[in-house]
Design a protein that fits this description.
Distance between the termini: 56 Å
Number of strands: 16
Order of helices and strands: HHEEEEHHEEEEHEHEEEHEEEEH
Helix content: 10-25%
Strand order of the largest sheet: 7-8-9-12-13-16
Oligomer: single chain
Mean pLDDT: 95
Number of helices: 8
Strand content: 25-35%
Length: about 350
């Protein structure tokens, strides 16, 4: 914080226009390397919040670990495991070193990994052309801006396969109308042998009202689903930790048959909360990869003299077992190895059929 105060205060006199001001605050918030901490506005020179691929750094090199397979329509090349050589013609590791943050430690793996994924998210004003070396040794080009994404107009979609209901949440956990839509869908699936809830397209997160509304249909008693913690200090007195468990209460008719929750790198915020909640209530098996790993609970603030605001994390969130939510790894981990088939859904289907038997 001392570095931020010193370095960023020194920049204030160099700001010439509103665009400079926006980038000033954007880069300041990037020092905290968490996409939950962000501005409520952007310009063409701003970085996007996410990309349809996830990068992992190993032994000084960058590799594609995950692809947003459920949403991409036109990707034929299996780029999983590919090494990223260049981004827009520039050596990718150099792009990490040159990222416009001043105070965070770019030698820390957690920081470098976040920066790597911020780079492939890209600026709105620039292309996102990746030079890759795929696992068979060939060099290929991937233009992220030429990928086509599925567009769902419905809050959720569902189908039945071999007696198993599959509900897919279409990035709508922040829409309060999802609760009644989910209720209607779940009521129509009560005769199924089991249920799969797909949370892999919840990139924008949501709110606890919707999350607890969904979870309440799967328990017949009040149960804790996550732990909150923050530190209070008033009138220059000692810091005191305040923490509590948040509970889910029963709601409506409970679906009592086996449940599977599918998660991935684009399961964000409240999607992550629902996953650890079902796990904590011992009401479902969680299948997939690491999630978006957004830290804590975010709150909105306004600048006094600007027309935009920002989000900060005020509360840490934990699984009821005490582990930070952002470090949660699904009980039934699936390493993504191909884009030719949906390995997470296949694992979930296999598992729920065993549970049904």
């Amino acid at each position: 914080m001392n570095c931020i105060e010193e370095k960023y205060v020194a920049k204030i006199d160099t700001l010439k226009n509103q665009a400079d001001v926006i980038l000033f605050f954007e880069y300041l918030l990037n020092e905290f390397y968490d996409s939950h901490i962000s501005l409520s506005t952007n310009i063409r020179e701003s970085y996007r919040l996410s990309a349809p691929i996830y990068i992992e750094l190993k032994n000084g090199k960058a590799f594609i670990k995950n692809v947003w397979q459920t949403q991409i329509d036109n990707l034929d090349e299996n780029i999983l495991g590919a090494e990223i050589l260049k981004f827009n013609g520039v050596d990718f590791i150099k792009k990490i070193d040159d990222f416009p943050s001043i105070c965070n430690d770019k030698t820390l793996p957690e920081v470098r990994n976040w920066i790597a994924n911020k780079i492939v998210s890209g600026k709105y004003s620039e292309p996102r052309l990746l030079s890759l070396k795929v696992e068979d040794g060939q060099n290929v080009q991937l233009d992220l801006d030429k990928l086509n994404f599925k567009k769902e107009s419905e809050l959720l979609s569902y189908r039945i396969e071999n007696g198993i209901g599959i509900i897919r949440i279409n990035n709508s956990l922040g829409n309060n109308q999802l609760i009644s839509e989910f209720d209607k869908t779940l009521d129509s699936l009560f005769y199924t042998k089991g249920l799969i809830i797909d949370l892999r397209n919840t990139n924008n997160g949501g709110n606890t009202y919707v999350g607890k509304g969904i979870m309440g249909r799967f328990t017949d008693k009040e149960l804790p689903y996550q732990k909150h913690m923050y530190v209070e200090s008033y009138d220059n007195q000692p810091k005191i930790v305040r923490s509590w468990f948040e509970h889910v209460s029963p709601r409506g008719n409970q679906y009592q048959k086996p449940v599977i929750i599918l998660v991935g790198r684009w399961t964000g915020s409240m999607g992550e909360g629902i996953a650890i909640g079902f796990d904590a209530m011992e009401r479902a098996e969680i299948v997939g990869t690491e999630m978006k790993r957004l830290a804590g609970s975010d709150f909105d603030f306004r600048f006094e003299n600007q027309g935009f605001g920002y989000k900060l994390i005020l509360q840490k969130l934990y699984h009821i077992n005490g582990n930070p939510r952002e470090l949660y790894v699904p009980t039934n981990y699936v390493k993504q190895s191909t884009i030719k088939k949906d390995e997470v859904l296949e694992k979930g289907t296999e598992l729920i059929n065993k549970m049904v038997k």
